Amino acid sequence: MKKDIHPKYYPNAKAKCTCGAVFETGSTKPELETEICSACHPFYTGKERIIKTGQVEKFKERMAKRDSKSGLKAKKKKNE
Fold this sequence. Notes:
Number of strands: 3
Order of helices and strands: EEEHH
CATH class of the largest domain: Few Secondary Structures
Strand order of the largest sheet: 2-1-3
Largest sheet: 3 strands, mixed
Number of helices: 2
Shape: elongated
Strand content: 15-25%
CATH topology of the largest domain: Rhinovirus 14, subunit 4
Radius of gyration: 26 Å
């Protein structure tokens, strides 16, 4: 490693999660803030959280409307 070009490394940096968990990790910053950690992530906790439902269905409806409108225009042009 070259001298004086690397940031200072903190081997015991404190990481704080929005769920309230605090743990130590290595970082170039003395304190970190995170939105999700192993204490609250569904993969580690085994609890599933549904954030918002129905988005896929809404998208499919919009695409179906768009396709049906464009299909009508294409048929009109062919008939004219």
